[in-house]
């Protein structure tokens, strides 16, 4: 069978790139104009509707994940160490990433190259759910940023608001997602390296 006839699975069939963690391939699921939250179906690799965006909380960047990464023991270990805990686990998903760009990109289901510059350490029901922050490679405005401290405060505040509220529902007594801290490019690279190890342990080593 000619494998070129078939679309590669965006999580397992697309490579992270030869220059990771400095430059990574990202699969973009949603963009700022989306009023529906799309998410890759893990079995088929096609975009599916996760849920409509019921409120005015819109992602202020391209949002997706890094292929061939996985958040499990090695990723969770960083959070446990930083928070002096032992009970946090990975969320068993590929590592999420936001990509900043000055360009208007009108739809997801695309692949981009980006440079991670930092990240949010996020807990979702006590599971490690890191959100890496990156810039589109060679972007005219954001492309020169080397660390998350280079990003304007207003942009960081918008991202913080989105990720600490986007899963909340009316009647919730406490927020589902808690931002514990913001980390730099060095830690972002370490999260990526560990997520590759988690992916290898979960998928490649079983073959």
TrEMBL record:
Keyword Magnesium in annotation: yes
- Per its UniProt record, what InterPro entries does this chain match? Pyrophosphatase, Pyrophosphatase_sf
Q: Which GO terms describe its cellular component?
A: cytoplasm
Specify whether Magnesium is a keyword of the entry. Answer: yes
Q: Which GO terms describe its molecular function?
A: inorganic diphosphate phosphatase activity; magnesium ion binding
Q: State the needed cofactors, names only.
A: Mg(2+)
Its name, as the record gives it, is inorganic diphosphatase
Question: Which organism does this sequence originate in?
Answer: Dysgonomonas gadei ATCC BAA-286
Upper lineage: Bacteria, Pseudomonadati, Bacteroidota, Bacteroidia, Bacteroidales
């Amino acid at each position: 069978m000619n494998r070129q006839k078939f679309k590669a699975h965006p999580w397992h069939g697309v490579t992270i790139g030869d220059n990771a963690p400095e430059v990574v391939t990202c699969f973009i699921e949603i963009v700022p104009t989306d009023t529906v939250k799309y998410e890759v179906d893990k079995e088929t690799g096609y975009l599916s509707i996760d849920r409509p965006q019921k409120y005015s909380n819109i992602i202020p960047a391209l949002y997706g994940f890094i292929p061939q990464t996985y958040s499990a023991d090695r990723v969770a270990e960083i959070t446990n160490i930083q928070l002096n805990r032992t009970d946090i686990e990975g969320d068993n998903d590929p590592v999420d990433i936001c990509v900043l760009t000055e360009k208007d990109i009108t739809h997801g289901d695309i692949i981009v190259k980006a440079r991670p510059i930092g990240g949010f350490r996020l807990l979702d029901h006590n599971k490690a759910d890191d959100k890496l922050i990156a810039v589109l490679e060679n972007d005219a405005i954001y492309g020169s940023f080397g660390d998350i401290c280079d990003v304007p405060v207003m942009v960081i505040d918008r991202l913080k608001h989105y990720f600490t509220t986007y899963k909340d529902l009316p009647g919730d007594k406490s927020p589902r997602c808690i931002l514990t801290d913001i980390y730099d490019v060095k830690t972002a690279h370490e999260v990526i390296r560990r997520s590759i190890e988690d992916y290898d342990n979960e998928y490649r080593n079983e073959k």
